[in-house]
């Protein structure tokens, strides 16, 4: 190569190198999240003390205990940073378990190491300004929690940035529809009734994996500012998905269909937290929602003791609507119902194509079939119902049913009485244990180890469905489903496969996915005629979405092509 050409090439390479360096510097500067400036960090000097077999205490009257029901119970009070520190220190072991479960699922969904690295940088860029949309007090609280997070995951990002980004995972999962979302449902009954108390029920169907849902925490918070409140969560999550405050205002969030966002704003759980902490009625809740910008579409069902009713705040990144009814009940699934979104194309498609409208109809049907005097046990019956419209068998776990057998938690609120009932394992089928906020917020000392914090007289017993053969078969179906997926991934054959799959679909005979998964196995192992037959059988069952039908028909067409050549 001539000297002149080498000189030009060196200049080009130097310019390219400078561009790359400049981009890296710009990326790091733009994605860097500044740490909150905390002047008083004395809370970090406090040590956790174990005062009983299942009770841990830090500072004054901040404690965590595991109840006999299997639920964790935690009480926190103080400044935002102090609450975060105490939360993190008390749940440090649970945070690590939670993060392990979360990261494990991400690794299963995205097995490519290079793509994982890409996602890391993409999410860093996507969330680059997220802290600008979150009130300072909540940044301080998250910062306090981050001191207790494991450094073994620092390859993802530093602890504070990581926990901050995790609060947006719920929203990103809704937008991408791939992480963990199925369909949450909430409802209110006895509205505008002077004789019966308002009841709010909800299933929080956000599923990552079984390990992620194992350690549910009931958190009772007495903040320095705002109202005292309770919320149901998991370790490291200070945002709210289901909660009630001391004024009898409840907040539950439900996903709606969202376009894929280009940039993060306020995570919906942070908005729900702010409403729970600072609103005592509809007007105050609406005012808070109006002033905040979110980046996915969500519904917030607000129950209010002072208004003796419920309403739905429907919020997208660009507009907001309100929906309520003059009658005695209100149902919220995963689509918008207000006039604001009547002509919204995305919402119209969601109603037509998803399971949301069907599930709303089913919930309405179950409410109308209930006697006029609606009790917490009646609410539990609805939340646990695994059937389709008119009690049709649509397969256990179908997204169109109220009970999809994936709930992280299920809750029943009585706002006027300040009583919250929370489901125990598994999903919404275990007993609902009751907590009376009137009593709990009067406590000034740590409860004795072994003492019941919940009011046992108000417990809703476990679902009798758990004692049936159908339930046993479903649990076996879940185990076999995981085994089949592993064989499909490895493209390995199962011994005596014909009998195996004949038995497998009998475990959940009305659920289309049992047949679809069987077809996927035979397709993966090159047995296309058998695969087609299972896909055809799946089409005869109640499908969850129109997308399910399209995918099945595409698979059938593909099987027909390969068998005719």
Task: Write structural notes for this entry.
With 565 residues, this protein is of the alpha+beta class. It has two domains: 50-467, Penicillin V Acylase, Chain A (4-Layer Sandwich); 469-564, Serine Threonine Protein Phosphatase 5, Tetratricopeptide repeat (Alpha Horseshoe). Helix content is 41%, strand content 16%. It is built from 18 helices and 17 strands. It has an eleven-stranded mixed sheet, covered by helices on one side. It has a six-stranded antiparallel sheet with strand order 14-5-6-15-16-17. The protein is globular. The termini are far apart.
Notable characteristics:
565 residues; alpha+beta; Penicillin V Acylase, Chain A; Serine Threonine Protein Phosphatase 5, Tetratricopeptide repeat; 2 domains; eleven-stranded mixed β-sheet; six-stranded antiparallel β-sheet; 18 helices; 17 strands
What is the distance, rounded to the nearest whole angstrom, between the alpha carbons of the first and last residues? Answer: 54 Å
How many separate domains make up the residues? 2
Number of strands: 17
Determine the mean pLDDT.
91
The largest β sheet comes out as: 11 strands, mixed
Give me the Rg, rounded. 25 Å
Beta-strand share of residues: 15-25%
The number of helical segments is 18
Classify the secondary structure makeup into a structural class. alpha+beta
CATH topology of the largest domain: Penicillin V Acylase, Chain A
Helix % is 40-55%
